[in-house]
Design brief:
By secondary structure, this protein is an alpha/beta fold. The chain contains nine helices and 16 strands. It has an eight-stranded mixed β-sheet with strand order 1-2-4-3-5-16-6-15, with helices on both faces. Helix 1 (2-28) crosses helix 3 (108-124) and helix 3 (108-124) packs across helix 9. The longest helix has 27 residues, at 2-28. The chain is elongated. The two termini are 20 Å apart.
Length: 402
């Protein structure tokens, strides 16, 4: 197997400059969620040049491709998200965004380039692959959840996808390392929108109306008690209020006050419980002030829970091809959300992080920052772990070990 590892490393080295150029092209031409038309076209052109079968315009501008191995009925899936963010780039690079106000600040350009490199090398090995490979170039991760839509479009069948892996860049980890979390890795989320209804009147005569601002302020403060008094201290959950709007003039008590936020929890079944507590609390406070309120909930992504068997295979494979000292284990889940969680729900899934920080760097700009600038040497780390990890997962399924 060492010979196979060395061969994979040579192949990755051979295409690294080309993949880096490809990443820069994607970075210079970012597109927002649900508008990834040119990014999708570039992906399709690349797949065509490699002779890889694909279907475009999946769930919007998504692309689903297949590399057929010896078994045409079963496959391992690999996912990359392709959308960018509404951020003005400030990173000082010669290939900065040409689209003002739009930037690949979450590393999806890196994810896409890595998967195209992985596809190129696995395609060269297709006659040796025991199973097939499904490639998911997924749109709309940052907004509506393109993963769910791709799954609903049938991308996990024909061939049947037995397991899916995906990666995300992490500026807190060195570019030559990969980071893994066993079990729950990301939170389930749910947005909420509260409107408190009062009665408008002159600010000099508040008894003539019902002030919606006071109960709304009380709600924002009291919402934290849902976490501290209604959720077990050993569970991880958070309620964030991010917007608050009320009134039009200093001396007018407004007719309504609006605020909104998001609920996050690592347990999918806990989401409804917290929603119920939030609704009861807000309506109770409104009633105490003689006001009323309406609440709208919008379900976000489910919790992302990594498959234990795939975790073991991927960590062992990464240790083999990167070195055991380059595999980082992180046991504290993030309360951020990612729609890769849908792949974990409908198949067996494993999501992991690839470092993008320079060695010794301790203050790299985080993802979603206008200064985000990943070390491009991590492209190699991503390709190595995706390629070798996929081969090892295939091997386990082929031997009926999974």
């Amino acid at each position: 197997m060492n010979r196979d590892i060395n061969q994979i490393k040579r192949k990755v080295d051979d295409i690294f400059d080309d993949i880096k150029t490809l990443r820069r092209t994607i970075h210079q031409n970012p597109e927002l969620s649900e508008h990834e038309k040119e990014t999708s076209r570039l992906i399709c052109e690349r797949l065509s040049s490699l002779g890889i079968e694909y279907q475009d315009n999946v769930a919007g501008y998504g692309v689903s491709a297949v590399i057929y191995g010896k078994d045409h009925d079963r496959a391992i899936g690999i996912r990359a998200d392709i959308d960018a963010l509404p951020i003005y780039e400030k990173a000082d690079v010669p290939f900065s965004s040409k689209n003002p106000g739009v930037m690949h600040a979450c590393g999806h350009d890196m994810h896409t380039a890595i998967l195209l490199g992985t596809a190129q090398i696995l395609n060269e090995m297709k006659n040796e692959l025991p199973l097939s490979v499904r490639l998911f170039f997924q749109p709309s991760e940052e907004t509506i959840g393109g993963a769910r839509q791709m799954i609903e479009a049938g991308c996990l069948s024909s061939p049947q996808v037995l397991g899916v892996i995906g990666l995300h860049v992490d500026p807190a980890v060195s570019y030559d390392s990969a980071e893994f979390t066993e079990g729950a890795m990301n939170a389930a989320s749910c947005e909420f929108y509260v409107t408190v209804h009062g009665v408008s009147c002159h600010g000099a005569h508040p008894t003539d109306g019902i002030d919606p601002l006071l109960p709304a302020c009380e709600m924002v403060t009291a919402l934290q008690t849902v976490i501290t008094r209604k959720v077990l201290a050993t569970d991880s959950a958070v309620i964030t209020v991010g917007q608050f709007h009320s009134g039009t003039k200093n001396n007018i008590i407004p007719p309504e006050t609006k605020f909104s936020g998001i609920i996050r929890t690592l347990k999918n079944d806990q989401r409804q419980y917290i929603k119920d507590k939030v609704e009861n609390l807000c309506k109770g406070i409104a009633a105490a002030h003689g006001a009323t309120c309406t609440i709208e909930f919008r379900e976000g992504y489910p919790a992302l829970v990594n498959d234990s068997a795939l975790f073991k295979i991927m960590t062992c494979a990464s240790a083999e091809i990167l070195g055991s000292d380059k595999v980082v284990y992180y046991n504290v889940p993030s309360l951020g959300a990612d729609d890769f969680s849908y792949f974990c729900q409908y198949s067996r899934g494993l999501y992991y992080n690839v470092g993008v920080a320079e060695k010794g760097q301790t203050s790299a700009p985080p993802v979603h920052s206008d200064l985000f600038c990943p070390d491009e040497r991590s492209l190699k780390t991503g390709m190595l772990t995706e390629i070798y990890g996929t081969l090892k997962i295939m091997e386990a399924f082929d031997k009926d070990e999974l």
